[in-house]
Amino acid sequence: MVRFEEIFSKAEAAAGATVAVASAEDYEVLKSVHMAVEKNLASFILVGDEKKIASMIQESFPDLTEPAISIQHAENTQNAALEAVKLVSSGKAGVLMKGHVETSILLKAVLNKEVGLRTGNVLSHVALFEVPAIDRSIFITDAAMNIAPDLNQKVQIIQNAVKIAHGAGVQNPSVAPLAAVETINPAMQATLDAAALTQMNRRGQIKGCVIDGPLALDNAISVKAAEHKGISGPAAGKADILLVPSIEAGNILYKSLMYFGNSKVGAVISGAKAPIVLTSRADSAESKLYSLALAICTSY
Ligand SMILES: CCCC(=O)OP(=O)(O)O
Q1: What ipTM goes with this model?
Q2: Which residue numbers delimit the Phosphate acetyl/butaryl transferase domain (predicted)?
């Protein structure tokens, strides 16, 4: 099981990245930048309202100076997102980070046909949670990007998550495609897709992981619940990656783990030309720092 402490060690060993931050004029974002610079993880190009960023730094983080950071002015959040994306696509930065900008605005810039970071593959969101209630870590995908993925998109979403899990040190992750039940019901698309994904994995069409579903959330994360319901299989009770059937399920699960579950999170977009740090605007500086470490240690 992977912990953020190990992810930090890996990221420190790979340090040296330049991160472009879209809309850096936010206290928690700047605090995470400050912590990352203190840990020598990366240097930063802070894109956004120059005056605001400079005065926030002067007031709260006066030791945050060049060359660890530089500031690039942008008129508004749309501009900041596009300029930050351009810094990455032109090679001036190796990692993109969401600052105080709506996810949809950032992703629009990421998907921009001329300067964006598309690869031709599906891009998807992967979040790693350290969950105190079950004393273990779990990846959840996709809480932020793909609205209602079909089977083909789910295949790529799993592949993207497996890549991040490998980079984080989980070699052959077990993947649970989640549904409301653990049996196949033709009226429930999530169960049909889960069965197909499981069989595709058995036939070698999806590699680097073990897929086992459909599973309901309890049977995927609790051995006790799986045993109580008589469910066995490689992911039953011990899934490393939870594939959610829709963005609503994923986003609600993400925020439940944060607000009810007191979890730690690090989250990235996988499948683009470069890793993208993408947490909720309301997530803490620590979460943004964990995400940076995850992005750096899984960069490709
Ligand atoms: C879970 C990350 C995506 C998200 O919901 O971001 P916001 O809370 O900033 O909308």
Answers
A1: 0.95
A2: 5-60, 75-295
